[in-house]
Amino acid sequence: MTDSEIFVSTTFSVAARCDKTNAFGAIVTTSSPAVGARVIQCQSDTGIVLSQNMTDPRLARIGMTILQDRFDASSALRAMKAATPYPEYRQLAVVDKDGHSDAFTGENAFGPHAGHYCEKNVATVGNYLSNPEIPKSMAEQYLTNHHLSFPDRLLDAIEVGFNLGGEVKDEKSIALVIYTDTTFPYIDLRVDWSDDPLNSMKKLWEVWRNHADTYRQKALNPNL
After folding, report:
1. Which residues share a beta bridge with 13?
2. 3.60.20.10, 3.40.50.2300, 3.40.30.10, 2.60.40.1930: which CATH number matches 3-220?
3. Whole-model pTM?
4. Phi, psi (5° rounding) for residue 141?
């Protein structure tokens, strides 16, 4: 396998707002390494932005800047598309502070299947997919599981993507990011290279869930 075959960024993702807590987060997986370093921009009380497929991380930062100025998801998406000379290669998704969502899949996004799906509070995107139903099915799963915690809803949603066949190539990295009410992430977990990234993330989350609230509280007030 050549280096170019290894590092093609083929990805499927779920970006969402929690309607119960107003937290924002995303879960992203890909067949290339260290997806968490390249795809996600998130901020509390602002929104979540993804840039994937021939990823240009600058686009997600542009989208977040637009959301910080209190424009909506569609405005952020338009700004990102306008900022790149290569929109046909990009795949973008946004969920804003009010739960409005928007997404874009360029005509040169990796096949055999590439697409997106948007509902209130969630946007899903994927490329190089083995099954065209993956984006819609992940979104529907997220919206169904109100009884789960926000991190578990995201994990459960992306597991649907895996179960439907995922990417044509085997997934190798995964990232889970959630912002609640602070300027630092409540969760920022990454599996940068694994033969079983989903189960590796599940195990990592089971460890982190027992410490997340404590770490947050100690950051805000070590005396408590």
Report:
1. 28, 125
2. 3.60.20.10
3. 0.94
4. -65, -45
